[in-house]
Amino acid sequence: MIDASSSQSELYDLVRLTLRLSRRFLSALDEPLEAALGLNTKELLVLAAIMDGADTPGSVAGRQRLPAPTVTRIVTKLVGQGLVERVTDPGDLRRQRLRLTSLGEATRSRTRATAQDIVDAHFGALPAEHVGAALAALRALEADLKPAPTTKETLA
Q: What confidence category does residue 46 fall into, taking pLDDT thresholds of 50, 70 and 90?
């Protein structure tokens, strides 16, 4: 059995290591993705969220845990590049919905292949058993970190 102080220390070490690895992964991906696609990782996250059904800036911000002003700035850039369009919601003329254009869909499709090539080039030598074990552990942690449903959600 692990005592409380040891458990707290391990939890802190887990957070520090995860942040360090996250910075390393982003560093490996960001410049090559921007060079290949003209979009950085945050812009690609916004594009992915829209493709996955987040159709308002607020829902994109919530899904990707990005500040709303950042999402607004990124959406404006993506609209300017012809990747996303803003469509007025016929049920509420004050609200604009977001959707990918055909160019946005094509870009999003190219992203996965490009990112996979970059990941393979930087991290392809990692032992498969370590990658599998880390992935399983991170998925379990992610599931443990999901907030409990609110009363309103459980009644729906």
A: very high
